[in-house]
């Protein structure tokens, strides 16, 4: 698809979702906004998954982005939602950049476990930092949008629209990236690193870049989540949170960016549904759902409408 | 030097408990290539079944020594009943998929088992602490220790030696080792790999349940038991090297001693000392300390 | 032209609408959020929910004693939706919104976890919906924020450690050194800090020694116990709770910790029914209020005790008491508001005005909404000493001492930490006679 076609499609989606969202009740808008914010974090995982590694550390990225946004809001008086989202992404990116080449050397289960360990170290540090509220975290107030203070009935939709726009922009950019040369090399890395090196590509540079971009998405997602929730705590960095992001990425598969958002929404809905109807057994319900998805959707939701590619040796 | 002795004893007693639990985890990964997050749930299951059996034994007025038998029996029951069910009925469908995907499958299993144990045993705590006092107390220096903790050390040694002997000195052990190195080649040599998988998984579950069974007397058996065990056994297994028995032992010792050191000397660091060690090991020796050399397929 | 079928359908739907309005009775919908899974379920969440169930049932049948004897709330039947608090603050924010906007509850009563309370309070405020926090301990809720529609019907956690320190002083228990073991998260960290500050005020020469902060949910305390015993102190303070506390007692008891040092457990009452004989005698503990075996005798308490025990085969400890006082306060405030509103359900604004600054009797004593603009409660607290009673086959509490609300809670407009640092300036403590509680106070064995 050409660039202009892609942009046109994105614009149409924006208009449709924005107007649909306007009509929805507030709690649904909230759920969709959270789904998109979480979807961004999972998009980062998909970025890395295309390179053959599964990152269990995106929780840490979202925590960094979230804490950065919240702290900047409280201490430096920057209240613009878009600015805070970008700041969240950038701070996660800056913190990750020095470590990216190091992390790019790991594969498979070790990469996942290392990112998980780092995520838990982050969690431990946050819990012990009393000035950041320790394990209780802290609250942040209401954001503004381009200088305009959001009134009570504007807040929900304002945040929804902001998140929607940022998500779509990220989705378009991700799509462009996937089809760029670097993005294609990423796919090649997943299939066979050795050959990539022999053909002159740099695995380390590719993966480092992917890692940094994933960090940006994670940080931005975290910042948006904080703005929507009004609260942040170290749980953002806990391994089960990271596990949920990974699950969404697996559910979506690595073909389609839209699938990531849909999967995020599906998880939110299933979580909410099981909690409402099975207050005592919602974990059982969630576990069964996870198993069914992993079993019957080997290539993720994206495979339902994208060109089904030949599954590589390592089926994800 | 009293402090050093205390740290050593604390480290070793903690490590022995950890070793029994982590050994099963590393075995399952070594053979089936599955990093089992639900390992903690089997540990909890062992504790729950023990609670049921020991109170049964008490109600039948059996002598206290029988409670140890009951604990062993509990672990065996869990392995015999639950392991085949899980492996044949669930995990089998996911073989061949990526390792990380299997982690998520086991995560789903963990979620399900949390609620299932709550449904079967309820949310109230069970106490099965009579066995804890069976071995009396031992005074070393100015500290009083419970004899039971030392019994655990002995148990850990027995278990470790048993598994090592089983893997290295029996014919079946050699078969399992072959499967660990390459399931494909082993299968082409006529080994029934699926049977090996099931037995290895059963042994791994047995060890987890054993850990839970023998730990039950020193705490209250209630929902949430599984969570505390998962991450720390992961750390041990990663540090020691996935699939290595010596690794599990050394890893457990390292974690136990590191923790004991932190608790006695610098308590502030205790919270993330384990994760830090895990991250450091992963960064500098990602295969762990005793990882088997695996040929990379091109 | 309307077909016969269409006409029938139209009639049917109109009738359905009319009958719905005519016969469906309006209910007072309460969302109750507490831990139904995870580590806090067994010690706090499920007992509280059980307390809510028996109480709401009694309310609806009009069987509660005066002044709670009106059926339902002002005649309107109470309908409850239970939500599990497990899953983290993020999930709770979503669930709260669902409760108010999708399930259309009138009031939410909930939250044990301080992190959850801090996260959900601003949400209720933003939605202008009524929220009662019934259990969480952090003083930060109202000290760091102001709310109009968020209330807490129980005293916050500062009270626990102040009462404990005062008890030690009142009993003349010598403390030259004290060790601490608390869980390494906000609750444990705050408890530790509050206790140290309180001790500085009452025992200026006492020194803090070993300071252990095990991970939440650790379960294995062998190493920590060795550390506590290698430098033995007069006192060991702990705010451990739930499974962690039970494990700690089971592991430390046989090793003689409770004999070497005086152990004080600020929130420990809830483990007594389960641990029974395994709880070493002479342990000093609190219940975060005058609850359970330490509740002041009253017909209301006796009624609640029997109601709960019959339904659950165990006597009520702190969690159901705190739920009870929340629901009772809500009921009275709502009924007062409805009486002024011709029996119609009050708006959030009116309900808030009604609860603000009010006071009522609960099984745990009088609850007064006295702090933070009438939205934060204060109440009496009690500390006692354990003893295993072989004939009753339960742990009883001796040497019970209750502390006036105004003695152990900060005064109006003073932040808890400042109050502690100021040496309890403004506290109103009468010298209560040491033998304040006698055998008559203790509840008969179930």
Short account of what is shown:
The complex is a heterotrimer of chains A (316), B (298) and C (446). Chain B is mostly helical and 298 residues long.
Secondary-structure element pattern of chain A, one letter each: HHHHHHEEEHHHHEHHH
On the 0 to 100 scale, the average pLDDT of chain C is 89
Task: Indicate the proportion of strand residues of chain C.
Answer: 15-25%
The CATH class of the largest domain in chain C: Alpha Beta
Count all strands of chain C and give the number: 15
CATH superfamily of the largest domain in chain C: Response regulator
Show unreliable segments of chain A: 312-316
Instruction: Tell me the Rg of chain C in angstroms.
Output: 23 Å
Task: Give the SSE layout.
The complex is a heterotrimer of chains A (316), B (298) and C (446).
Chain A: H1 3-23, H2 26-49, H3 58-75, H4 81-96, H5 100-103, H6 108-128, E1 138-139, E2 144-145, E3 148-149, H7 155-179, H8 181-191, H9 193-198, H10 203-229, E4 231-232, H11 239-252, H12 257-277, H13 282-296
Antiparallel strand pairs in A: 1-4, 2-3
Helix pairs in contact in A: 1-7, 2-3, 2-7, 2-10, 2-11, 2-12, 3-4, 3-6, 3-10, 4-10, 7-10, 8-10, 11-12, 12-13
Chain B: H1 2-32, H2 39-59, H3 65-89, H4 99-121, E1 137-140, E2 143-146, H5 147-169, H6 171-181, H7 183-188, H8 193-215, H9 225-240, H10 245-265, H11 270-284
Antiparallel strand pairs in B: 1-2
Helix pairs in contact in B: 1-5, 1-8, 1-9, 1-10, 2-3, 2-4, 2-8, 2-9, 3-8, 5-6, 9-10, 9-11, 10-11
Chain C: H1 4-23, E1 28-34, H2 39-61, E2 78-84, H3 89-102, E3 107-110, H4 114-127, E4 130-133, H5 140-143, E5 150-152, H6 158-170, E6 177-181, H7 186-202, E7 207-212, H8 222-230, E8 235-238, H9 242-252, H10 257-260, E9 262-265, H11 272-275, E10 284-286, H12 299-312, H13 318-339, H14 348-355, E11 359-362, E12 365-371, E13 376-378, E14 381-389, E15 394-403, H15 405-408, H16 416-421
Helix pairs in contact in C: 2-12, 2-13, 3-4, 6-7, 13-14
């Amino acid at each position: 698809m050409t660039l202009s076609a892609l942009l046109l499609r994105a614009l149409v989606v924006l208009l449709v979702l924005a107007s649909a969202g306007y009509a929805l009740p507030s709690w649904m808008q909230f759920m969709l906004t959270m789904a998109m914010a979480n979807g961004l974090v999972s998009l980062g995982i998909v970025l890395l998954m295309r390179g053959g590694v599964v990152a269990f550390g995106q929780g840490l990225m979202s925590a960094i982005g979230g804490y950065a946004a919240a702290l900047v809001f409280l201490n430096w008086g920057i209240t613009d939602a878009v600015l805070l989202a970008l700041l969240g992404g950038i701070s996660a990116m800056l913190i990750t950049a020095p470590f990216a080449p190091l992390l790019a050397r790991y594969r498979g289960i070790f990469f996942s476990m290392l990112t998980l360990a780092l995520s838990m170290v982050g969690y431990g540090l946050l819990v012990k930092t009393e000035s950041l509220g320790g394990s209780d975290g802290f609250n942040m107030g209401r954001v503004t949008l381009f200088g305009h203070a959001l009134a009570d009935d504007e807040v929900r939709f304002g945040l929804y629209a902001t998140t929607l726009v940022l998500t779509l922009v990220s989705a378009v950019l991700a799509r462009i990236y996937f089809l760029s040369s670097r993005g294609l090399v990423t796919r090649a890395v997943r299939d066979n690193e050795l050959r990539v090196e022999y053909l002159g590509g740099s695995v380390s540079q590719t993966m480092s870049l992917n890692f940094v971009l994933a960090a940006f998405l994670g940080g931005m997602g975290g910042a948006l989540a904080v703005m929507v929730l009004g609260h942040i705590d170290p749980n953002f960095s806990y391994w089960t949170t990271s596990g949920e992001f990974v699950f969404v990425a697996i559910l979506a598969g690595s073909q389609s960016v839209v699938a990531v958002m849909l999967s995020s929404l599906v998880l939110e809905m299933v979580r909410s549904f099981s909690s409402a109807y099975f207050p005592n057994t919602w974990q059982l319900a969630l576990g069964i759902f996870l198993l069914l998805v992993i079993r019957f959707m080997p290539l993720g939701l994206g495979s339902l409408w994208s060109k089904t590619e030949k599954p590589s040796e390592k089926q994800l | 030097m009293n402090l050093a002795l205390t740290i050593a004893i604390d480290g070793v007693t903690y490590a022995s408990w950890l070793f029994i639990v982590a050994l099963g985890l590393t075995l399952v990964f070594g053979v089936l290539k599955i990093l089992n997050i639900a390992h903690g749930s089997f540990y909890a299951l062992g504790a729950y079944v023990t609670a049921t059996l020991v109170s049964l034994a008490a109600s039948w007025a059996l002598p206290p020594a029988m409670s140890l038998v009951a604990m062993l029996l509990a672990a065996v029951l869990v392995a015999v009943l639950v392991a085949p069910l899980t492996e044949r009925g669930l995990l089998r469908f996911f073989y061949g998929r990526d390792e990380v995907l299997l982690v998520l499958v086991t995560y789903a299993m963990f979620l399900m088992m949390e609620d299932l144990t709550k449904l079967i045993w309820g949310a109230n705590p069970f106490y099965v602490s009579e066995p804890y006092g069976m071995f009396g107390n031992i005074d070393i220096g100015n500290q009083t220790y419970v004899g039971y903790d030392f019994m655990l050390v002995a148990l850990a040694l027995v278990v470790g030696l048993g598994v090592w002997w089983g893997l290295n000195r029996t014919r079946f052990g050699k078969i399992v080792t072959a499967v660990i190195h390459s399931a494909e080649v082993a299968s082409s040599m006529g080994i029934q790999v699926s049977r090996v998988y099931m037995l290895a998984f059963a042994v791994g579950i047995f060890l987890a349940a054993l850990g839970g069974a023998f730990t039950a007397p020193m705490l209250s058996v209630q929902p949430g038991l599984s969570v505390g065990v998962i991450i720390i056994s992961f750390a041990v297994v990663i540090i020691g090297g996935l699939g290595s028995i010596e690794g599990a032992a050394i890893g457990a010792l390292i974690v136990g001693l590191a923790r004991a050191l932190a608790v006695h000397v610098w308590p502030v660091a205790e919270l993330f000392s384990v994760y830090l060690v895990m991250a450091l090991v992963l960064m500098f020796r990602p295969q762990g300390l005793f990882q088997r050399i695996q040929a990379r397929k091109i | 032209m309307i077909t016969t079928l269409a006409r029938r359908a139209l009639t049917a739907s109109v009738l359905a609408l009319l009958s719905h309005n005519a016969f469906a009775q309006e209910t007072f919908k309460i969302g109750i959020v507490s831990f139904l899974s995870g580590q806090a379920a067994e010690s706090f969440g499920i007992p509280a929910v059980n307390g809510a169930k028996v109480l709401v049932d009694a309310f609806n049948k009009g069987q509660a004693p005066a002044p709670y004897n009106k059926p339902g709330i002002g005649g309107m039947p109470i309908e409850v939706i239970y939500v599990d608090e497990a899953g983290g603050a993020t999930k709770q924010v979503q669930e709260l919104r669902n409760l108010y906007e999708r399930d259309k509850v009138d009031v939410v009563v909930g939250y044990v976890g301080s992190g959850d309370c801090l996260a959900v309070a601003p949400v209720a405020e933003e939605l202008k919906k009524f929220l009662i926090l019934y259990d969480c301990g952090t003083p930060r809720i109202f000290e760091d924020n102001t709310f109009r529609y968020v209330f807490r019907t129980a005293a916050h956690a500062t009270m626990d450690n102040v009462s404990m320190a005062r008890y030690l002083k009142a009993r003349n228990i010598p403390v030259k050194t004290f060790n601490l073991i608390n869980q390494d998260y906000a609750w444990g960290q705050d408890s530790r800090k509050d206790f140290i500050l309180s001790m500085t005020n009452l025992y200026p020469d006492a020194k803090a020694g070993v300071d252990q902060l095990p991970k939440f949910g650790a379960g294995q305390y062998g190493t920590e116990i060795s550390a506590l015993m290698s430098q033995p102190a007069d006192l060991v303070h702990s705010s451990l709770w739930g499974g962690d506390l039970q494990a700690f007692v089971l592991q430390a008891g046989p090793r003689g910790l409770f004999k070497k040092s005086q152990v004080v457990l600020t929130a420990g009452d809830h483990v007594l029914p389960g641990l029974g004989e395994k709880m070493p005698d002479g342990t000093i503990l609190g219940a975060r209020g005058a609850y359970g075996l330490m509740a002041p005798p009253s017909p209301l308490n006796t009624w609640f005790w029997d109601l709960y025990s019959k339904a659950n085969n165990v006597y009520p400890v702190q969690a159901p008491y705190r739920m009870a006082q929340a629901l009772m306060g809500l009921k009275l405030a709502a009924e007062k508001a409805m009486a002024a509103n011709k029996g119609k359900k009050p708006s959030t604004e009116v309900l808030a005005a009604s609860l603000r600054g009010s006071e009522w009797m609960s099984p745990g004593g009088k609850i007064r909404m006295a702090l933070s603009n009438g939205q934060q409660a204060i109440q009496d607290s009690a500390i006692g000493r354990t003893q295993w009673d072989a004939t009753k086959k339960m742990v009883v509490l001796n040497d019970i001492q209750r502390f006036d609300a105004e003695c152990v809670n900060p005064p109006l407009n003073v932040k808890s930490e400042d109050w502690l640092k100021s040496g309890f300036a403004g506290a109103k403590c009468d010298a209560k006679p040491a033998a304040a509680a006698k055998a008559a106070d203790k509840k008969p064995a179930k």
